[in-house]
């Protein structure tokens, strides 16, 4: 195969891979996350830098609760074409920012947000639960992989508090089962 033919084949594959990766982002209950900011962590001369990116999401069925997570984003050639496998180091913080209103009942461990972290096999998930005894919403982020997942995770809790003179709802009333 000639060099121009190889370049065309490589660019076609890279474009297809980038489209496949973009199609898998934000595939769960929540819409795409809001990018808050990025900070470079590793300088690369001719390709994109490695970065830490902080995103925000709203819980799709619990009004008044938002989560922010920070993920590493690979630069370099693989990052530039969207084919890098991202690491599992993800931090999470969730807070009540208004009156809590539940839209529907949920199962313990329901997915709030899911995003691919590699081209095919790895995904990050944020899941929700309710500590019935303490009236606290619990959010956990972790990554899993088709063959072997990662034990790396982060947990954040949101005590459901009264807001604006209204009583706090009980998350236990909204847990299925």
UniProtKB/TrEMBL annotation:
<keyword id="KW-0732">Signal</keyword>
<protein>
    <submittedName>
        <fullName>CreA family protein</fullName>
    </submittedName>
</protein>
<feature type="signal peptide">
    <location>
        <begin position="1"/>
        <end position="22"/>
    </location>
</feature>
<dbReference type="InterPro" id="IPR010292">
    <property type="entry name" value="Uncharacterised_CreA"/>
</dbReference>
<dbReference type="Pfam" id="PF05981">
    <property type="entry name" value="CreA"/>
</dbReference>
């Amino acid at each position: 195969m000639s060099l121009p033919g190889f370049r065309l084949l490589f660019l076609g594959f890279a474009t297809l891979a980038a489209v496949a990766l973009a199609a898998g982002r934000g595939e769960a209950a929540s819409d795409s996350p809001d990018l808050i900011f990025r900070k470079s962590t590793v300088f690369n001369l001719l390709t994109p830098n490695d970065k830490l990116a902080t995103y925000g999401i709203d819980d799709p069925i619990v009004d008044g609760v938002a989560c922010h997570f920070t993920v590493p984003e690979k630069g370099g050639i693989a990052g530039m074409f969207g084919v890098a496998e991202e690491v599992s180091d993800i931090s999470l913080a969730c807070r009540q920012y208004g009156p809590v209103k539940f839209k529907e009942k949920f199962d313990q461990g329901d997915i709030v947000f899911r995003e691919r972290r590699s081209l095919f096999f790895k995904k990050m998930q944020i899941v929700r639960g309710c500590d019935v005894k303490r009236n606290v919403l619990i959010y956990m982020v972790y990554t899993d992989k088709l063959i072997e997942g990662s034990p790396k995770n982060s947990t954040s809790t949101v005590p459901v508090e009264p807001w604006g003179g209204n009583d706090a709802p009980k998350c236990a009333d909204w847990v299925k089962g």
